[in-house]
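User: Hi! I'm working on a homework problem where we have to compare a predicted structure to a textbook description. Could you give me the structure for the chain below?
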Amino acid sequence: MAIQSWTMEQLLKLRRYQPEMVDQALEEMLERQSDLRWSVVIGAYLDEEINLSKAAELLGMHRLELQERFIAQGIPLRIGPDTVEEARAEMAAIEAWNIESQKSEQP
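Assistant: Happy to help. Predicted structure tokens:
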């Protein structure tokens, strides 16, 4: 059976009412078809829907292993914050973590 555009539309509709059924079918398909899983995960990474660590997790790889594979395949790496605001948020989180860890080290 060839997949028609209406088939995808119906799956999306069905997912609104029976998400577990559609999700299970998709998970099984992605589990069996590693090339499809790779394409879906890399597409999500390139569309900035997930980061490198999440992509590695979904592909069952270590982040550094995936990073090396991206470099070898010419896939652009997104490492670190994309904006000044994200960088400031990361710095604030690190500073808060440092303060908390110093408090827990004090007698």
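For your comparison, note the following. The chain has a mean pLDDT of 88. Residues 79-107 form one domain. Good luck with the assignment!
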